[in-house]
Amino acid sequence: MIKSYVKYTSRILRYFPIRFSIAGIFFSCLLLGNPYAQTLETQVLSTLLNLIHVSAYVDGNLVVTGNIYSPIKFSTPIQTQTLFLIFFLSLATCTRSTFETRMKILFYGLLCFGAFLVTQFSIIILLLALNFTSNMAFLQASTILTGIVGSLFIELSLFSTIKLPERTKITASINRSYIDEYLILITLLSGASLLVYFIINVLNLQNNSPVTAYLALNLSTILFFRYYLAYFIYELKTPGWVKSHTLHRNIDSDKTCLSFLLPSYNEEKHIQRCIESIDKAAEKYHGSTEIIVVNDGSTDATRKIASAAILNLKNASGKVYNIPNSGKGVALQYGLNRVSGDVIFRIDTDSFIDESAIPRVMNHFKDPLVGSVSGMILPLEEKSWIQKIWILHYALLTFYKRGWELIDSVLVQPGAFSVFRKDALIQVGGWADDILGEDSDIAVKLARCGYRNEYEQHAVVFSDIPSNLRDLREQRLRWSMSFYHARSAHLDVIKDFNGPISVMYSLNIVEHGLGYANALFLPFLIATFLTGYNSSVLALTSLVGISVGLLAIELIIYGLQSIVYVYFLYKFKKLYIIKYIPMMRLYSFIYSIFIETEGIEILLSVTSKWKTQHTKELTTSLRRKIKEGAGSV
Question: Which residues are within 8 A (CB) of 7 and not within 5 positions of it... i.e. 6 or more apart?
Fold first, then answer.
C-alpha cells in the first residue's frame, strides 16, 4: 500500500506541469511572505527619485512629496510583478535542462526585474512632468506596461535559450501599399484599448492586488476582442464575388489546372474517403484536377488503398509516389516538385473536402496578389465532448483569421486545408522540412514576399479531430512547440516593418508570453492566502473581496466572448453546441497550465542537451518526445 502510494506520488511529481505549479506556490509564498521582497522596488524607486532631487519616501506605498501639503501616493503593481518573476524561478528550478540553461533563465528574470524598475520610474517621472498625479492612472498604466514587459522578457528568455531554426531571409518582391490595412489595425486596437479602459474603470482598481495581477494577465484575452470587431467589419465589407448570388457565374469559365497534394503516413483508415471526396468535388469544377499522393514510408496498407482509389477516379487524374519515411515537410516538397497544377490544394489525408469547396476557394485566386487561402475545418465526427468543443475552438480561429486577413497579417494557414498559388510557393522555396510548424512558416514567408493570405469560411473540410485527451495532448503539444520554431524563423519581420504584419507579429509574441504567466496564477493565488496577504490593501484582503474582483473580470471578458460564440453557432446552424461554451473556459485552463508548460519543458530539456545547433535530427527528436507519455517530462 505504502509502496503503491509512493510510486503514484513519484509519477505525479515527474510530470513537469505539476512540479512547475508546486514551485510556483513555493516561490510565491517566499516572495509574498517576505516584507523586504515586497518593499524592495519601492525602496529603490524612492532612492532613485531622491537622487534626481524629487523628494520621496516609503510608507507602505511610494509617497512623493510634491510639497508638504500634497503628498502623492503611488501604488506600484508589486503583486503583478511577483507573478512574472516566479515564472523564472519556477522554470529554472523544475526544468531538466542543463545548469547553464537554468542560470540563463534566472539571468533573464533578473533583467526582467530591472526592466520593471525602469518602467515604474519612467511612468512616475512622466506623470510628475505632466502634473498628473492620479494614483489610479499610475496603477492602470503601470499594470498594463508590467504585463507587456513581463511577457516580453519571458519570451526573450525562451527564444534566447532554446535551440531554434536559423532565421529565414526573405526579400519583398511585390511592392504594396498598406494604408487601408494600417487604418483598420488602428481601429481594431483602439476598440480593444477602449475595452481595457472600460474594464479597469468598472473594477475601480486603486491598489496593488491579485485582482490587478489577474487583469494584467488577461490583457491578451481582452485585446482578442479586436478579432471579434474585425469579424463584423468583414461582414460589412465582404467582397462582392463571394456573395452567393454571384458565385456560380464567376466560376463557370474558370479552367485553372488544380493539384491536390496529399502527404500521407499510415492513413489506411481515411485515405480512400479523402481521395473519393476530392474526385466528387472535382465534378463541380470545370478545370482539370489531379491528385498527387506522397506515401511517406507508411507501414500499413496506405500505399495499396491509395493506389486502388486513384485507379477508380472518375473526374480527376492522379498518381501515388512512394518515398522512405522522411517527415511531412520532405513529402510536401517532393510533391511540389511533381505537381502540374497552377494552384495546389494541400489537404491532410485524414480529411475529406466538401463538394462545393473548390469554386469558393478559386474565386480568391482571381486576385493575382493572393498567395494562399485556407478554409474552415470541422470535425469528421462529433461523438466526444472534445470533438464538439473543437467547433468552438475553430470559431476562435475564424475570428483570428478575419482579423489577420483584414490587415493582411495571416500568421498561419493550417496544414489540414490550405490552398496555394504554385508560383508563389516556388518563389519562397516551398515548405521547410526541418522545423515544427511548417504551416505557419509558409504563410509568413508568403506574406513577407508581398502576397496576401486569405480565409474562406464557406469552404469546408471535415477532418479527423482527436477524440480523447491523449490524442488532444499530442496535437496541442505540436502546436505549442511549433510556435517557437515558426516564430524564430521569421523574427526579422519585426524589424523589417513591411506592413502591419510586423505589429501583429510583436503582439502575438507578447500575448503568448502572458499565457505562461497565466499558468502560474492559481499557484500564486493559493500562496496569497497561505501567506495571509498584504495588510496594506485592506479593501481587497478578504477572500470575498478578491473572489468578487476575479469573478467580475471573468464575467465581463468571457461573458462577452460567449455572446460572440452564440452568434457564430447561430450563423453556422450549430446552436446545439451552446451547452459546451462553459467547457471552453476549462479547456483554456487545462491548455495553459498543462500543455503549454509541458511543451516548453520538452523544448528546453531536449534542445539544451543537443550538442550542435538546430538540425532536422533535433526536430525528429522533438517529435518523438511528444509521442512519449506525460511522465517523461
Answer: none
Here the cell at position 629 is 507519455
Residue 531, SS3 per DSSP: coil
Beta sheet of 56-59, edge-to-edge order: 56-59, 61-65, 71-74
The SS3 of residue 622 is: helix
The predicted structure's pLDDT at residue 306: 93
Cell of 614: 538546430
Confidence at residue 373, expressed as pLDDT on a 0 to 100 scale: 96
Q: Which residue is listed with cell 503611488?
A: 74
Number of Cβ within a 10 Å radius of residue 244: 8
CA distances from 423 to 176, 256, 370, 492 (A): 18, 13, 11, 24
- Position 252 scores a pLDDT of 39
Cell 456573395 belongs to residue: 243
Give CA angle at 479 (427, 516), nearest 5°. Answer: 120
CATH number of the domain that 462 lies in? 3.90.550.10
User: What is the Cα 138 distance to its own chain's centre?
Assistant: 30
Residue 510 lies in a domain: no
Q: Distance between CA 196 and CA 226 in Å, rounded?
A: 11
The confidence score (pLDDT) of residue 3 equals 59
Domains in the chain, number: 1
Distance CA 174, CA 220 (A): 32
Instruction: For residue 336, tell me if it sits in a domain.
Output: yes
Residue with cell 480527376: 316
**How far is residue 597's CA from residue 516's CA, in Å, rounded to a whole number?**
7
- pLDDT, position 307: 93
Q: Is residue 147 part of a domain?
A: no
For residue 573, the one-letter residue type is K
Q: Is residue 445 part of a domain?
A: yes
In this prediction, the residues of the chain whose per-residue pLDDT falls under 50 are 68, 240-253, 534-540, 630-631
Taking alpha carbons only, the member of 452, 441, 509, 504 closest to residue 167 is 441
The 10 Å CB-count burial string (b at 16+, else e) for 177-210 is: ebeebeebbebbbebbeebbeebbeebebebbbb
Please give the C-alpha separations between residue 186 and each of 179, 189, 190, 407, 505, in angstroms, as whole numbers.
Answer: 11, 5, 6, 10, 15
507573478: which residue's cell?
Answer: 83
Q: What is the pLDDT of residue 8?
A: 60
Q: Count CA within 13 A, CB hemisphere, residue 107.
A: 11
Question: What pLDDT score was predicted for residue 134?
Answer: 76
- What mean pLDDT is reported for the chain? 85
Torsional sign, CA 96, 102, 104, 108: positive
Domain limits for position 360: 247-479
DSSP H or E run through 605: helix 596-608
Predicted TM-score of the model (pTM):
0.90
List beta partners, residue 71: 65
What is the SS3 string spanning 534-600?
CCCCHHHCCHHHHHHHHHHHHHHHHHHHHHHHHHHHHHCCCHHHHHHHHHHHHHHHHHHHHHHHHHH
Contact 263, 339 (CB under 8 A): no
